[in-house]
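Late entry, magnesium ion complex.
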Amino acid sequence: MRIQRIASKWQKTQILLQGPHLQVYIPETQKFSLENLNTMIHKYGLVYIKPDRGTYGQGVMSAEYNGPLTSDTSPQAEPQVPQIQEPSPLPPSYKHRYGVQTQTYLSIDELYAVLIHKIQGREYLIQQGIDMLTYQRRKFDLRVLVQKNLKGEWETTGYIGRVAAHQKIITNHHGGGTALPIEHLLGPHMNERQLQLMIQELRQIGTLVGYQLQSAYPRLKELGLDVAVDAGFKAWILEVNTLPALFPFKELKDKNIYKRIRKYAIHYGRFSRSRSASFR
Ligand SMILES: Nc1ncnc2c1ncn2[C@@H]1O[C@H](COP(=O)(O)OP(=O)(O)O)[C@@H](O)[C@H]1O
Ligand SMILES: [Mg+2]
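Prediction complete; structure with ligand written out below:
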């Protein structure tokens, strides 16, 4: 039987949100519209705008609001004592990033017009942007590979870090990103114990996602999670791929990792001829 592949990020996100333990890992995700752009950019400051059925980081954009956030208007944020008049701040602005290009606009309507022009009628999502940790001033995220093992259980079999090319907002290999061991990328940010806890959490997230998606898509066999880690070391699932690349794991020093990945993949038929035809 063919391995199941699901292209729609929206559909997969809806299933993940039904899993009680996974909600905390999912950045808010909505369908792209002016209303959702308006609400989310003023709530989070940073948003990502991406095709519902995209791959390789193609068509992924970000938008950033530079001004007071709606969540900052809580009573605690108000000053207790009258403040000395500060010089008036710069007017709020909106920064649009795509590839290595950056453009700044003074109104949300201008930003929306540019986004709509780029989107060209395709189905797009808007997602809470995660301010990722960096490595040598470049953003990085993690790829967590989860597979059905020989006993038919979901098992997290590999993880690797992906560093964005200079000035880029995406970490994908096809977008010029570089793969490095996660210890190498997380190491400078945390101590050994925090690192071990992080790895343990990634493993757990991987298997939870496997079982959750399987509840809706029973013929899944392998998944690649894109996980971002923020400055508070919170992990966020940016998306789940159902046709994950296996080759990056070949480069890891511990050769047993790729051996196991390959063994499981052969067992569930990844390399059989019907593979490419089964992606939808
Ligand atoms: N919400 C987000 N916050 C921060 N970075 C993101 C977000 N969504 C996507 N990205 C960046 O863009 C890349 C591509 O987005 P992704 O959702 O994985 O689409 P694709 O299917 O094209 O890989 C991610 O690997 C990550 O580097
Ligand atoms: Mg991705």
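DSSP finds six helices and twelve strands in the chain. Will revisit in the morning.
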